[in-house]
Design a protein that fits this description.
The protein is α+β, with helices and mostly antiparallel strands and 426 residues long. It contains 13 helices and 13 strands. Strands 3, 4, 5, 6, 7 and 8 form a 6-stranded mixed sheet that branches. It has a 5-stranded antiparallel sheet with strand order 2-1-13-12-11, sandwiched between helices. Strands 9-10 form a two-stranded antiparallel ribbon. About 4% of the residues have low confidence.
Length: 426
């Protein structure tokens, strides 16, 4: 008698048969493809950042600047340039390639060169050395002191180095006492400066000249128990192989900050001298420093020094210094392209209505804290004033601007510059 299959078993066999036919006909691939297509339709495509060349400048800003410059009293000889760093395009220019007196905007060039070639972490280091062996309380050999271009080095710093000889138990020296100076002549006024432009009392003792250093070293050593005759002290390099007993150092960024934030002429000149001594080894440090700045313009900024500059010093005090407004922006653009330089500039440049030489300017809520720039002012030659820096435009783009005004009442020009900056963020 034949066995009867239950409905449940018949359904199971039919399902198994259907699955076999399904896979033989590649049905599973079609289903997978269908599922994949469903997810593809629901995925959000990744947004790619637009390329700078695809971005547009704020045309309204360009028109507004043109109206402002042409409709208002421009106050003296004006040159200016505005560049959209985000879009990598020019926004506006007015006599942008005119060589003009930049005043303290010259410090921007000096600081860029110092940061680039000495490094943001560079330190001015001075040291105490011993070249010989101890016998009792005497050194059978020589000792020495080596000094760099540290603008902060003072008699207290020197006493710390002299104390290293005392701690070593040195009371006598049989050989020489070497005084290794980065410069021997005192820092002089540039020939076109006026008396009082450079306040040497604000500088470290190295910048007072060789004789001042000799006197300070004699006093410091003898007051720390080191006995010697004047004839033992010689101005010469510390012998190679001498052992370092102690050093003292000052971060260069302190001078960068003073030069940019407070527009210190003294610290800007010291940076220029440091570049001269470390790279050109010129006897006239100011001339060597300016030669190096010209080389920096050519090799690093890819510009013709004769077309964009006339350089007599590192601070902009000389009325014969010249830069173009477009070149001011070129420096800002160069800094932006080197993250560590840009970071240092943004740390040091004054902020409108808040810090440094801009603390009492652009105090309106619409502009306060929104402009970061280097100022420049000289009251000679009928008035010289400049301003260059960074600001964020209404469209969120980073704007770079540089402007110079010559033969102008300084107070009136500053008010004009404040209003100009208001146009940038209006």
């Amino acid at each position: 008698m034949a066995r009867r299959l239950s409905k449940k078993k018949i359904s199971g066999w039919l399902l198994l048969f259907a699955v076999i036919i399904f896979f033989q006909c590649d049905g599973h691939k079609k289903v997978a493809s269908s599922v994949k297509n469903i997810f593809a339709k629901t995925e959000t495509p990744e947004k790619k950042a637009p390329k700078p060349e695809d971005l547009e400048i704020d045309e309204a800003l360009a028109e507004r600047l043109d109206s402002f410059v042409t409709a208002t009293n421009r106050l003296g000889t004006l040159g200016l340039y505005v560049y959209d760093e985000t879009a990598n395009k020019e926004v506006y220019e007015f006599r942008a390639d005119s060589l003009m007196r930049p005043a303290s905007n010259m410090k921007m060039l000096t600081c860029l060169a110092a940061i680039r070639h000495l490094g943001p972490n560079y330190k001015f280091t001075s040291g105490a050395y011993m070249d010989g062996k101890m016998k009792g309380d005497a050194v059978e050999g020589n000792i020495g002191l080596k000094f760099t271009f540290d603008p902060w080095f003072n008699p207290d710093s020197l006493r710390k180095l002299a104390a290293a000889f005392q701690a070593k138990g040195i009371h006598r020296v049989t050989g020489k006492i070497y005084l290794d100076l980065a410069m021997t002549e005192p820092m002089q006024h540039e020939e076109h400066w006026t008396m009082g432009d450079l306040k040497t009392r604000k500088l470290g003792i190295l910048y007072r000249g060789q004789q001042r250093m000799i006197n300070e070293v004699k006093y410091a050593l003898r007051s720390h128990g080191v006995n010697f005759s004047d004839s033992q002290l010689v101005v010469a390099k510390v012998p190679k192989g001498a052992k370092l007993l102690k050093n003292t150092s000052t971060p260069m960024h302190l001078s960068i900050f003073r030069a940019l934030q407070n527009s210190s002429n003294e610290h800007a000149e010291c940076l220029s001298f440091a570049l001269s001594g470390l790279y050109l080894n010129g006897q006239n440090h100011r001339e060597a420093g300016t030669q190096y700045l010209r080389s920096f313009i050519s090799k690093e900024l890819n510009a013709d020094p004769d077309a964009v500059s006339v350089i007599h010093d590192g601070s902009g005090l000389c009325v014969h210094d010249r830069l173009t407004p477009r070149f001011l922006v070129r420096m800002l653009h160069y800094a932006y392209g080197h993250e560590y330089i840009y970071k240092e500039l943004r740390r040091c440049l004054p902020i409108s209505g808040q810090t440094g030489t801009l603390h009492d300017r652009m105090l309106k809520p619409t502009i306060r804290g929104k402009v970061q720039a280097k100022t420049g002012t000289l009251t000679r030659e009928d008035g010289i004033t400049s301003l260059s820096g960074y600001v964020t435009g209404k469209n969120g783009h980073l704007l770079l601007f540089g402007l110079i005004q010559n033969e102008v009442p300084v107070a009136d020009a500053r008010l004009w510059q404040n209003k100009f900056c208001e146009q940038l963020v209006k």
